Every structure is written in C-alpha cells, then in structure tokens.
C-alpha cells in the first residue's frame, strides 16, 4: 500500500479563537497511522484566519473519513474542508 497526503482547510468559529490551541490539539484527534505534517495560518476574510494542514498516512479504506471525523471533533473549529488529496 502507498501513502496518501491530505490537505485540509480548518475554519475557526470566530476571529477570537485560539489558533495555536487548535493546532496543538490536531495530533490527538488523528488515527494512530496518521502523521500531522506542516501547517500554515492564512488570512481568510473579516479577520478570520484559515488553518491549512497536511496529514500523511497509509492509503486505506476509511482513512480520510477517520481523519475528517477527528478534525470535526476539534473544539472551536466550525468547518473542515478537504482541499487536496494525492498519492505520494
């Protein structure tokens, strides 16, 4: 089996959300076979900042769903959007 890279955009609930606290919680909500790669904070709109993240893991059935379920469980995150998925 190969590996897959998933790139997500996480949108906090408000401009006052603690971005660094959200980022620090990400590794704890991922499946055991997922690796938290790089992250970048980008201005979005009206003071909101998007958190762009990369997750790497084994290309298996249900992997992306498990990652998304974990990311959706994060406190202060309103939206999780899969931006890109590719085999590596």
TrEMBL record:
Residues covered by the Translation elongation factor EF1B beta/delta subunit guanine nucleotide exchange domain: 3-88
SUPFAM superfamilies on file: eEF-1beta-like
Keyword terms, alphabetized: Elongation factor, Protein biosynthesis
Coiled-coil regions listed: none
GO molecular function, one term: translation elongation factor activity
Gene3D superfamilies in UniProt: 3.30.70.60
Pfam families: EF1_GNE
TM helices/strands, residue ranges: none
Taxonomy, superkingdom: Archaea
SMART domains: EF1_GNE (SM00888)
Similarity comment text for this entry: Belongs to the EF-1-beta/EF-1-delta family.
Function: Promotes the exchange of GDP for GTP in EF-1-alpha/GDP, thus allowing the regeneration of EF-1-alpha/GTP that could then be used to form the ternary complex EF-1-alpha/GTP/AAtRNA.
Record-given protein name: Elongation factor 1-beta
């Amino acid at each position: 089996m190969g590996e897959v890279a998933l790139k997500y955009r996480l949108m906090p609930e408000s401009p006052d959300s603690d971005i660094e606290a959200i980022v620090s919680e990400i590794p704890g909500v991922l499946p055991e076979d997922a690796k938290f790669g790089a992250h970048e904070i980008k201005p979005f709109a009206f003071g909101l900042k998007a958190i762009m993240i990369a997750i790497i893991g084994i290309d298996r059935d249900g992997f992306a769903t498990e990652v998304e379920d974990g990311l959706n469980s994060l406190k202060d995150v309103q939206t999780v959007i899969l931006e890109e998925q590719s085999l590596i």
